[in-house]
Amino acid sequence: MAAETSGAIEQEEQIVTPWEVAAEKGGKIDYDKLIDKFGCQRLDQSLIDRVARLTGRPPHVFLRRGVFFAHRDFNDVLDAYERGEKFYLYTGRGPSSEALHLGHLVPFMFTKYLQDAFKVPLVIQLTDDEKCMWKNLTVEESQRLARENAKDIIACGFDVSRTFIFSDFDYVGGSFYKNMVRIAKCVTYNKVVGIFGFSGEDHIGKVSFPPVQAAPSFPSSFPHLFSGKDSLRCLIPCAIDQDPYFRMTRDVAPRLGYHKPALIESSFFPALQGETGKMSASDPNSAIYVTDSAKDIKNKINRYAFSGGQDSVENHRKFGANLEVDIPIKYLGFFLEDDNELEHIRTEYGSGRMLTGEVKKRLTEVLTELVERHRRARAAVTDEV
């Protein structure tokens, strides 16, 4: 434990918390190390095959390609499902920016697949309160951003009859608040400092926030949805930086008589400039936004997407591209559906027969179509919806 708390070593090591993600100096995030440190399990092929068997449909591209790569008790949820017991999904978003970028869409695209494949209910929490406390936004501004973000989330196409989207400022109270208090009583100050690294300089809002994100893991927080279903299991798809919240939640669940929530966790979506951490919403050129025009997308990919190609065509033909660091290839891995086409591009580009410009062109097509589709869906989201 000593190593984790001493500041000097912290800089050498990678940092992954819900509020900061940074790789070791000049490197990229080491996910194996993270799995060891957090104590979750790797998502192996047998689990992926099992999902395909239980749902009767091919596994999502994010499963096939290891975007979602770690889990906690996912097998227990599948065991229960096989016995005929349903579960519910819980995911969320901290609304810190007006528009979402592609990295923000990843958990929602995957959650939509899970909802469709397993035909289960879903709750989506907008932590407008969290962003108000961490990002120096006013209460009103946080609420406004939550509403804007909700439109983008609805545009992902969730099953309206099975989905409940709420913002903390509007919904927290009643049964939900009772669970927050029950959770809070189980977690000592020392424990929360150990998990989240709070210091004496942090205001008490931060220290008291974790129960708010923990409460949706328990079905009784939603009496209008799950009345009398206290044994319903919860599965949380999220990026792995959210893991500390749910380590805490899983710790207290048995003491409150609930199942531990299960998690299925993704790696970070890399910034255009390369894989040193996750994208920054504050640097518009580090990401492609769902509001970007076709021209913006083309421009950002051509100018900013870090390439693993060689410095001259001659060298590129000779040595081929370094696929390990090439961002267009990584992005295609997320968003190009066709496995065969992706494999073909990797082979051709890696051998130098295909040039960076051609890969960037294909990526531009894929992302322009994705963003265009999203824009149309978002435009259809009226205030009534």
Automatic annotation (TrEMBL):
Family named by the database record: Belongs to the class-I aminoacyl-tRNA synthetase family.
Keyword set includes Cytoplasm: yes
EC assignment: 6.1.1.2
Molecular function in Gene Ontology: ATP binding; tryptophan-tRNA ligase activity
Organism: Salvia splendens (Scarlet sage)
Source species taxonomy: Eukaryota, Viridiplantae, Streptophyta, Embryophyta, Tracheophyta
Name of this chain's protein: Tryptophan--tRNA ligase, cytoplasmic
GO biological process: post-embryonic development; reproductive structure development; tryptophanyl-tRNA aminoacylation
Location of this chain's protein in the cell: Cytoplasm
Matching InterPro entries: aa-tRNA-synth_I_CS, aa-tRNA-synth_Ic, Rossmann-like_a/b/a_fold, Trp-tRNA-ligase
Keyword tRNA-binding in annotation: no
Enzyme class: ligase
Keyword vocabulary terms for this entry: Aminoacyl-tRNA synthetase, ATP-binding, Cytoplasm, Ligase, Nucleotide-binding, Protein biosynthesis
CDD domains hit by this protein: TrpRS_core
